[in-house]
Amino acid sequence: MMLALAMLVGWGAGPGGRAVAQARPAAKPPAVKPAAAKPAVPRLWRPVAAADAPDVSEIKQLRVLTTSDYPPFNYVDRNGWLTGLNVDLLRALCSEMKLKCEIKAAPWERLVEDLKAGRAEAVMAGMAVTEANLRRVSFTRPYIHMSARFAVLRSSPLKKFDPVGLAGKRIGVVNNSAHEAYLKDMFPRSDFVPYPNDAAARKALRAGKVEALFGDGVKLSLWVRGSRAQKCCHLRGGPYTESRYFGDGMAVAVKRGNTDLARVLDYGFARLFETGKYAELVNLYLPGAFFGSPK
In the chain, how many domains are there? Predict the structure, then answer.
């Protein structure tokens, strides 16, 4: 089948006042400066070969829903196009599997309802694999495992990010978060300094009130690369991915019981890993968030 992945932008009035996005042809990814060294990514799928491809002849069209407000996974860029890691992974998967695909944005609260109603075959919007969600939909294998990281000042002398190396060190963390629970269990000899939110914790790190900050790898990766950090800090340690603290990761949701489609998508993701496309896109959108400690 010919690849026909439509990227959607903007919002207009659909039937019954339902908000719909307007389509445009798939665009090339934005040019980026080459990195000196790209962190390796962990294997999340068993090795597969092109000869093992599942039969996709019965899939006439794959309609996928996402949202437009969850950067860097799915969002509308400055030109008004729907983009992000989820969108580009889907585009690459459809190309690899030679599927005719369409991705549309919809409000988060409507995604599962539209999936159940047959208005889409899949949802790829950063949905977490939880017991509550498993009662409503079926999932592929996780394609992203959520992780935690440490952020430190670039002038920091800290070298070892283990319970011994951080013993007695002041570590900032958001109060009553999964990251605080992890630190208390795994780094009991450190001195924890709780803050009410991410902004307060980051401010404390920049001011030198704490020696390290522990938090969500994606958020910290975006912060240290953004203008608000003013190149103060970088990521170190980890990644820390224990599922009982940080969840089982993100997966594509399909209609409950549609295991055939889930297997097709799992194979597609595995092929993207084998070709290197998965690592390319993850390192493009999330450099250092999960898999390394770039300067």
Answer: 2
Cβ neighbours around 278 below 10 Å, total? 23
CB 156 within 8 A of CB 211: yes
Q: Which of 245, 229, 70 is nearest to 151 (CA)?
A: 229
The pair of three-digit structure tokens given for residue 120, joined into one six-digit string: 């889409």
pLDDT at 116: 96
Q: 3-12, 112-121, 184-193: which range is least confident on average?
A: 3-12
* 90 neighbors 64 (Cβ within 8 angstroms): yes
Q: What is the pLDDT, as a whole number, of residue 196?
A: 98
User: How crowded is residue 101: how many other Cβ atoms within 10 Å of its Cβ?
Assistant: 23
Both tokens assigned to 89: 């992974």
Residues 6+ apart with CB under 8 A from 33: none
Residues present in the chain in total: 295
Query: Of 156, 148, 157, whose CA–CA distance to 198 is shortest?
Result: 148
Distance CA 105, CA 88 (A): 14
- Shared-domain flag, residues 96 and 157: no
Domain that holds residue 152: 148-246
